[in-house]
Design goal:
Number of helices: 6
Structural class: alpha+beta
Strand order of the largest sheet: 1-2
Radius of gyration: 16 Å
Helix content: 55-70%
Largest sheet: 2 strands, antiparallel
Distance between the termini: 50 Å
Number of strands: 4
Shape: globular
């Protein structure tokens, strides 16, 4: 592989972000553009089908794929269904909004809007 391509396709080290989800602090990672796009498509498909269970699972999966759990992510040890059994849909949606904001660098903008 040439040097430019090598550099372009090497992910930068990204510091975890600490956020509040479900009333506690969690470290999350920003997802790759491709992974975030997959989640976006699942959310759009669930909304278009008017299937609240699929929508809840899509939100829960996004949250679990983002929370850092040691050297892996929460999705490796917890299923979307388990998260849904433990939390109401609005709490899961709120957690997903935090994750989405962090992925798009909006966390500072949200804090500024809340304080104005």
């Amino acid at each position: 592989m040439n040097t430019v391509k090598n550099r372009l396709l090497t992910a930068m080290a990204v510091k975890p972000i600490t956020v509040i989800l479900f009333g506690g602090e969690y470290e999350i990672k920003r997802l790759t553009a491709a992974r975030l796009s997959e989640h976006d498509k699942k959310l759009a498909d669930a909304q278009a089908s008017h299937n609240s269970e699929l929508l809840a699972k899509a939100h829960a999966q996004l949250v679990l794929d983002s929370i850092i759990d040691g050297d892996s992510v929460a999705a490796d040890s917890t299923s979307a269904q388990e998260l849904m059994n433990s939390h109401n849909h609005m709490d899961i949606i709120d957690a997903a909004k935090v994750i989405i904001s962090a992925n798009f660098g909006l966390e500072g903008a949200i804090d500024t809007a809340k304080n104005s």
